[in-house]
Amino acid sequence: MKPEKIGRIAGIGVRLAGRMAGEKLAGQAQAGTPAQPSPAQAAQPNPPITRDTGRAAGQMTRGVARGVGGFLRPFGRVGGIIWLEVTGVFFLLFVVVFAPLAWRSRPASFYGPYDRTFITSAAVVIVFLYLSVTSFLRARKK
């Protein structure tokens, strides 16, 4: 992801939040809402919530959520790629541990008797090698 794109997304989110806050403040100034609450309003523990108040709060919440989501989207993509790579390394550790065990317990001849240790360790190596390789391939595809 290019740094210019991350900056553009972050700038859009900040501008949206600033515009919404400015509109909210301008709406309060036009409505004649005093900066300090009256003594009667200050005495009320919770001022009454009207439909318009709820609607404005919902719009503000949606706008902030969209701005934050737009800002975090590139980090989510990078985080997913890093998660797949770390998972691939973790699976590769099992291959590194079990491959020498499979090598030491292999039969002397190709047609020789296969014991339980060799079959189990070979199966673990194959499964975890597959999981590791596919994890790295998925990270590369993202």
How many strand units?
0
Largest sheet: none
**Computed structural class:** mainly alpha
Total discrete domains: 1
Portion in strands: under 5%
Overall pLDDT level: 81
Could you characterize what this model shows?
The chain is an all-alpha fold and 142 residues long. It has one domain (3-141). Helices cover 80% and strands 0% of the residues. α1 packs antiparallel against α3 (51-104) and α3 (51-104) packs across α4 (116-141). The protein starts with a helix and ends with a helix.
SSE topology sketch:
Blueprint: H1 3-30, H2 39-43, H3 51-104, H4 116-141
Helix pairs in contact: 1-3, 3-4
Structure in a nutshell:
The chain is mostly helical and 142 residues long. Helix content is 80%, strand content 0%.
Key traits:
142 residues; mainly alpha; 4 helices
